[in-house]
Amino acid sequence: MKKTRNSAPPAAPGRRTACLRLAGAGLLAMAGWLAIQPAGRAADAVFEIPPPARDVPAAGGMATAVLAGGCFWGVQAVFQHVEGVREALSGYAGGSAATADYETVSGGRSGHAEAVRITYDPARVSYGKLLQIYFSVVHDPTQRNRQGPDVGPQYRSAIFPADAAQRQVAEAYIAQLDRSGAYPGPLATTIETLQGFYPAEDYHQDYLARHPDSPYIIVNDQPKVDNLARAYSAYYRARPALVRP
């Protein structure tokens, strides 16, 4: 399902654009639209989960993590508010450079997921803490190939480790969370080889900060940032680390 976007190319003909219709109809239509959405975790809910039992040891310099969990607008927005994150860049991971554009990825057959590359300081926030935030407030990891109103493999829950250490921590944490009983079902999160990360178009960057009044943002993404502030106050910063300050 294609998302509403401001100042962006028009939706491709024939695509389902429920969010586009939602924005056009305004907030009054939002309640009716939400009522017909499939069951799943509410956007304003938080999974209360333990931190990972193992973590990547802190090392000097900056590190990167690539995570996918539905629409990259919300994923980016949450991590932009995490202390220790220098940049959270929306983009595509899982496919080739030839198919790394929004129109192609939206078709669901590019191999890509909408993903976010997080550049962070391991001395201030660990890889494990990023994963805890990812699994508790960023998205519902039990949903397979969907998040909220967005449906398709491009919205899958996926981790793209940068190295063997990240892969081992991610694998161990998924197993730990599946055993924890914190979720209504098994996690659908996949761990995939990072073949490349391709930045998304400029109009996707800093989307929540630039379009806070978008109905899609109000319903699906702003609650995640609010949850970060409540559940991880020690790691929350009010001023986001924008791509285009």
UniProtKB/TrEMBL annotation:
<dbReference type="GO" id="GO:0008113">
    <property type="term" value="F:peptide-methionine (S)-S-oxide reductase activity"/>
</dbReference>
<comment type="function">
    <text>Has an important function as a repair enzyme for proteins that have been inactivated by oxidation. Catalyzes the reversible oxidation-reduction of methionine sulfoxide in proteins to methionine.</text>
</comment>
<dbReference type="Pfam" id="PF01625">
    <property type="entry name" value="PMSR"/>
</dbReference>
<keyword id="KW-0560">Oxidoreductase</keyword>
<dbReference type="InterPro" id="IPR036509">
    <property type="entry name" value="Met_Sox_Rdtase_MsrA_sf"/>
</dbReference>
<dbReference type="InterPro" id="IPR006311">
    <property type="entry name" value="TAT_signal"/>
</dbReference>
<feature type="domain" description="Peptide methionine sulphoxide reductase MsrA">
    <location>
        <begin position="64"/>
        <end position="216"/>
    </location>
</feature>
<comment type="similarity">
    <text>Belongs to the MsrA Met sulfoxide reductase family.</text>
</comment>
<protein>
    <recommendedName>
        <fullName>Peptide methionine sulfoxide reductase MsrA</fullName>
        <ecNumber>1.8.4.11</ecNumber>
    </recommendedName>
</protein>
<feature type="active site">
    <location>
        <position position="71"/>
    </location>
</feature>
<dbReference type="InterPro" id="IPR002569">
    <property type="entry name" value="Met_Sox_Rdtase_MsrA_dom"/>
</dbReference>
